[in-house]
Prior knowledge:
- The chain is α/β, with parallel strands linked by helices.
- Helices cover 22% and strands 26% of the residues.
- It has 4 helices and 12 strands, in the order E-H-E-E-E-E-E-H-E-E-E-E-E-H-H-E.
- The strands form 2 sheets. Strands 1, 2, 6, 7, 8, 9, 10, 11 and 12 form a 9-stranded mixed sheet that branches. The protein has a 3-stranded mixed sheet with strand order 4-3-5, with no helix packed on it.
- The model is unreliable at 235-239 (pLDDT under 50).
Amino acid sequence: MTPDTIDFVLVGIGDRAVDYLTAWDLQRRVHQRVVDAESPDTVLLLEHPPTFTAGKRTDPHERPLDPGGAPVIDVDRGGKITFHGPGQLVAYPIVRLPEHVRVVDFVRRMEEAMIATCAEFGVRSARVPGRSGVWLRATTDRPERKIGAIGIRVSRGVTMHGIALNCDVDMSWYDRFVPCGIDDAGVTSLTAEVGRRISVADVVPVLEHELTQMLAWAEYFPTPDYEPRPEPGRAAVGGPRVEVLSRPGA
């Protein structure tokens, strides 16, 4: 598979941000077409209005008591609760995994694309084994903080859901819940780290380039991890938790 087989679709950002349920329905339709070999591998790029999405591992107490008017939607991906909203670039790669690419490798490639995108804007980040997504190391005045989230589902060999990179998010939304169930760390954005506005439009071409590289499935040199830190309440450090469905019609 080569990069020119991937169709990148800018569905809507800014004033054309896409309702989450509308985008989810689009994902399902594109997923079916990719499964049926009627469409090429596709990456949907978009921005959502304020929305909380709860993955299958979300505990009741982790849901926001006051979502600020934003819907809270249960979704069929792994992971816990997270936020999507203005200032966050979301990418939904709907791609068939080659036989030699394991699901864990796909997750790491998506994280690597976010890490490389952050680096283009002068922000150094990495993975934290035991915790999904992309993180910045703690400093003397700021805790370890998450800048990119990931939650995927694999059905019939084709991926769904994807990644979310904070560009210029109103961080007050994260005060309404515990992001991904991790209460001993913070959340950040490119704008907060760089000290100047980095818009979703600024980041779209950079992330598209990095995803193209990762989805070419060539060998790459991963960014060294930070120190392992299991999620609160989980004793062991494990790999990414993703749902893999293979039964017909899953």
